# Entry
Amino acid sequence: MVDDTHFLPFLLQIPATPGEVHLNAGTLSPTPLPVMRAVEALRHCQASTPSSFFFFETSRRIDASRRALSRFLNARPEDIFLLPNVTTALNVVMQSIRLAPGDEILTTDHEYGAMRILLEHVARRDGSTVRIVNLGNCLQDPGEVVEAFRRSISARTRVMFFSHITSASALVLPAQSLCKLAREHNILSIVDGAHAPAHVPVDLNAIDADAYGANCHKWMMAPAGCGFLYARPSLKPKLRPHILSWGNGDYDAAQPADPDAPAPSGPWDLSAGCTRLQYRLEYLGVYDRTPQMVLPEVIGFLDQIGVDRMRLRAGALARFARSILGDIGWVCGNSPHQAMSGCMSIFELPATIDPSTFAHQLWTRHRILCPVTRVGESHFLRVSTGWFNTTDQIRVLASALKSMT
Ligand SMILES: Cc1ncc(COP(=O)(O)O)c(C=O)c1O
# Structure
């Protein structure tokens, strides 16, 4: 049963293009109107008082946004770095660490392709190896995932890298238990949390990863270009920027003893309110950071709806999708364990369908956006149901699928 009554006023705040169905919060969500108005006001300011906005406004607004996000995710503001996306965040971490020849990075066979490229690059660079935990046999219980990692740890394992929610298979992994396991073995835990904030509860203090990168432009509904890195204090002295700019005048000197010390001030306010490390990692030259400045409005909007309530509706929509697509013969591939299954649903593509063209056809013929994902040799249609989607949109998807198979 999907309850619309509480949500109607909020659904009216979600922009939509008539005739289009977007079931893909897993890539990007729509931007709610109050957030869009906030970002447009900032862009207006930026456009009409360009350099002064950049020199004097940016740092103050980034600071307020960082504080709002820190409260939302239960972390200290000095451990949070606002960056354009999770790709940037996890590149900072992986490009910073140095492994010895023969060391191992332990990861799963369900990681996002771009992250696998990053892990393999780091392994090649350092003469280390990427060792894979096969998640295919761990779908019944989160404890099986922890045991599979435990069995794969060797004396050479230095890093455990895993998604909090896997992209292609929509599996919610037991992030906190995996980070605990890593710590017990003195292994760095690096979490790709791209899909997690506002999708599942994320308490960064409790998860206790060494590093956790994520996007706010997926389930939190921030405008595109808003992601973050959380770094545990013990990891921070190791972090090096992957882009050198004004924050790195001392890049070749010894690493600062206290990365949380205030950044040196300059003639403008570029580093005001930042720690030294935040200025080092976040200042990437001039670009549009307004999406990173509106987290107070993003979180304010989610709080108005009620984050728990929002998740309940998204979960109910996921169950509705699984049931109605099941009725027309689409087989759900999600984990049967409730704790491992969130608001993304995956359905096996029938053998008669060409996986390389199907998502494109769904869009061009029916104006429905759902990606096709791949795990090993299997292909899935991935249906993300955000709280802002509706049962009618899922019915439209079902009837399109019926006509295409
Ligand atoms: C698990 C996972 N990691 C990383 C990313 C990369 O996100 P972005 O392109 O916003 O950096 C994605 C994107 O969908 C993802 O699903």
